[in-house]
Amino acid sequence: MTINSFHKKLRQQNKGQYSLLSFCIFLSVFLVSAFSYMYFGQTVQDFLPEGGDTRKLASLLLAVTMIGCSIFTAYASTLFFRYKSREYGIFLALGESRRSLKRILFRELASVTLSASISGIILGLPASWLIWKVFETFLISNEETSYRFGVTGLLAGIGFAVILALILSLMGRRFVNRSDIIDILKASQKTEMVKEIKPWLLPVGILLVILGILLGLGLNSFAVTVFHRSFPGASLYYLLALAGIYLILLSVVSQSRLGRNKKKFYQNMVSVSLMRFAAKSTARNMCVIVLLLFACMFSAFYGLLYSNISGVTNLTNSCGFAMHYPSEEDQISKEDIDRTAAKYQMEIVGYGKETAANLVISYKTRDYDNGKYITVDAAESKLALFFSSAAYHTLTGQNVSVASGTYQAVTPTDYKENIWDFMDGLYEIKNPDTGKALPLTFGGALEYDALYNMSHPYAYVLNDADYAAISEGLSSMYTEQVCLFDVADLDHSYSFAKDLLNQYIAHATGLSNHYGNYDMWEEQLAGKQKEDYVYAGELDYSGSVIQLLGNWKYSPQFVIITRQDYMQMICVYVMLCLYIFIITLSAVAVMNYVRSISIAENNKLLFQNLEKLGANTGYRRKILKKQLARIYQYPTILGCLTGLLFSLGMCVINDRRLTISEIQSLCIMLGISAFIMVFQYLLYCRAKNQAEKIVGII
User: Fold this and answer.
1) pLDDT tens digit string along 358-387?
2) 3-class DSSP state for residue 172?
3) Residues 497, 501, 506, CA angle at the centre, nearest 5°?
4) Which of the chain's termini has less CB crowding within 10 Å, N or C?
5) pTM score, whole prediction
6) Closest CA to 480 of 337, 396, 359
7) DSSP secondary structure string, 453-507?
8) What H or E segment, with its residue span, contains residue 273?
9) Which of 79, 104, 74, 91 is CA-nearest to residue 170?
10) Per DSSP, which regions of 260-302 are E strands?
């Protein structure tokens, strides 16, 4: 009988070990491939702005996906090699050459990896399509939201499969190249004792976790607010939290004190000693699980942040339709709007149209220079949009009183001033045609969501007399027409809004064909200094409507379209975050299950000896349950608490307050934590039953 025949019989007899490794490889390649098919598809790529933070975040999520899948596949393979160690040790002791064993092992790994990877790559495509269709039910289905396969996603799946194959081959090579046969045979009997852990290390670990998260999140914000300076390397303080997590876990798995309750200590002595014999590897394993659960919680929280659409759906301080465009442009008229409304049986409500002036502003702002935030006097640097008090009242219906010589800044609802622009920073305005200047002081803020982003840093409201005086002699090239109105049935106005948008785009000319940050005055200043203006250029109106509305200076704000586009965007982001949630939770499940089986396999002889010494089934089951319960309880609780603390810190430190939507998100996070704990408990029950079979309790 040849060695190949022996290996064939062994494979048939131990299908479970090969099935576990094959399943882990399949699941990894399947998840990454399905993610890649969607992420690199043209639909998602159109949603993600080129070079934007959202694209960077999505790329980071893909990288985290690959890392998470690699970790739990590599970890699952350790059980496979642990099983193989005794088998290969015996073959080596019988005189079989390493080269022959290596060749057989690599052939087995190649066969398992290839079949599992091909299955994962193939099945990932229909899975990504089905998942997209589920999410598409939340969208208005059209050409822009249809599923489109990306060839790059296929290449990413194949590339990841190759990476997994390399990882497994390196681990296999390391496994076969062990020089000591006794080490191979006794691999499962090695202990990793640690020195006695002092009781005070547990509270120190807790303190380090809290400090690491708070300093990592808030130190830079504190430095900017107080010292107007960024703090390089503030994110390194997260390492304190990592060290704290390790200390906490090492403390709880290395309990060895006699304490006051001696009876309890002696009753648990076997269970505690078993944990201590593998304290280092157990603590490291738990630490990885805590980090994976933290990533799981973090992805869920990020998805909740994206899914917060209260600012889009709340129209108590806004209107359904808002347009602004150059006065010299022949845009759609009131008659065009009424005719289109009649076509779709829409009723126009609260129509208002007024002229606003673009005036040169001198204001205080902040800039970033050499690691420090400095206050800059931007004298006569750009244009901003100004309304008279009467025009603002006509457009918004809000009664406003602005004192002479003052201005009021228009902000969104519940606005929190950022570090860059000061609401009270404006101190003078000038008519760009006549050169007449008017000094101003800050007179307060007005909240109206439909107007605030028509100008940067703010849109402003002036006293009627001041507005008339400063705008006298202003040419039409520096004025804009602002039109606001509602419809009686906004929820069913999508077709009307889409038609109106197409008409608006068709009427657009070169006068309004500018990127969002374009400023006519800045372009004139750049021309005088013979410099290139960075925001010069024209947009492509024939491209994606979503991209156009996001980049266009004179983009109309139609709430029903904005809401739908926003829903499309958040569905993409939430889908990506959900993938990370699923992948990290899958990694946790595999690692915990493998650790549970490993504990049972490694301590099978111990439980047999306990039975010979007279230990009944109940006592042995109690020891095993405590062993397994700890590897589920401790990292699950710590991972969820760390994720909740980080989420709370992000909410509070971001703007130093808790909004209603943030409180709702935190409540949902509590529910997600409960779900993770229930999931871990069910997994524990499944692993416990399997472990009891292995050690011979049932």
Assistant:
1) 999 999 988 766 666 778 889 999 999 999
2) helix
3) 150
4) N
5) 0.69
6) 359
7) GGSSS-EEEE-HHHHHHHTTT--GGGEEEEEEEEES-GGG-HHHHHHHHHHHHHH
8) helix 269-277
9) 74
10) none
